[in-house]
Amino acid sequence: MGSLKVLAVVAAISSVSFAVNPISEAFDSLGLTSFASAAAALNDSSEGQALLSMVLSGGNYSILAPNNDAFSDASALTSDSTLLLDTLAYHILRGSFSSSNSSSLNLTSATSPNHTIGRSMLNDSTYVTLEGNASQVVAWTTENGAITFLNQPSNVSVVNSTRINGTGLAVYVLSGILSIPPSMSLLLTNSTNTTSIAGLLNSTMIPSANGTNDTIGNILDAQRGITLFAPSNSAFSAVSSTLPVLEGNLTAFTTVLQNHIINGSTLYSSEIVNGSSMTSAAGEPLTFSTNSSGTYVTSGSTTAKIISTDMLCMNGVVHVIDNVFLNTDSDMSAASSAYNYATSEATKLVSETGVISATATGASGSSTSSSSSSNGSKNGAAALSASAHYMTLLAAVVSFVVIGSVLA
């Protein structure tokens, strides 16, 4: 089906008066016939029709449209209607990301090592379990003069763009199809710098909250809204002489692990501000600092450099750090307060548009705000207790797996 017919059908479904010719001309001029055909397939489901209707409702949306070459080997995608819908939803960003108001535009992008984060239309719980039922995000950066997308198995970059006159739509042509972020456990497995922690999470069976055995990875994957500061393989090796001191002290191990996690909040690198702080799952401050050499996070007396940021997963984000926080301090009242505050703030993420930043989300001030919300709901406290239960079980095997692998 030609792009003119496709968009005519879309406009009819949306029940919105639309100038079809400019839209058709824009897609034709960019050679996006395969993308237009894929979009036409969305008409076969009510969910697809709803997505198309929303995009053509008159608001500002940014469409990341893979070119024809990208679809040349995508038969598995185009033959699965549900996966196709979710994948296309992941290619539509809420809001404007243009650095220009003219007809020719450029995608707003930070320069590496900094990243730009935007929220997509993908919110199918099969693939996304972020806090507040928020939609999944897309991350990209400018490197060597090209805008490239992060967390992709192969390079995907912006090759062309146009603004569709008379609409709120901007189209950015991509060299490939974006992959939807995987589970946290699979993400860690596929990263060469986190294989130690991935092996622990994905192979160790422990009792879950309902009494059945499950892997630690699966249990953590089930949580909503997690920021994990994951020590690299070399970071674990560097503290091999210190870890045995904590062996057998289950409380200390639990606290150390909790001080690597922000519970109930997904904190992207674009939300980290110099001098800001967040509250860990153990209730201790995680303080951030930046300088010309990079971004650092401090817990207790230990500071680690963030060496890899914005590794996206279905229920949060992972930042790889070059040290282990051997912080055994905890304040569970502060942890509960922070979790409850994060849960209440998460409802705002559903309507989030444009570039995600500390200013837009208020993330940099959340630790201060949470401290004033100490009388949190029972639901928040219950969720935190469950998380603490999982972390306690996790601590029981860390001394064996981590220390054992170091000594082996």
Automatic annotation (TrEMBL):
It comes from the Eukaryota. Residues 3-178, 181-325 form the FAS1 domain. The keyword Electron transport does not apply. Keywords: Membrane, Signal, Transmembrane, Transmembrane helix. Residues 1-19 form the signal peptide. InterPro entries: Adhesion/Biosynth-related, FAS1_dom_sf, FAS1_domain. The chain crosses the membrane at residues 388-407. PANTHER family: FI19380P1 (PTHR10900:SF77), PERIOSTIN-RELATED (PTHR10900). This is FAS1 domain-containing protein.
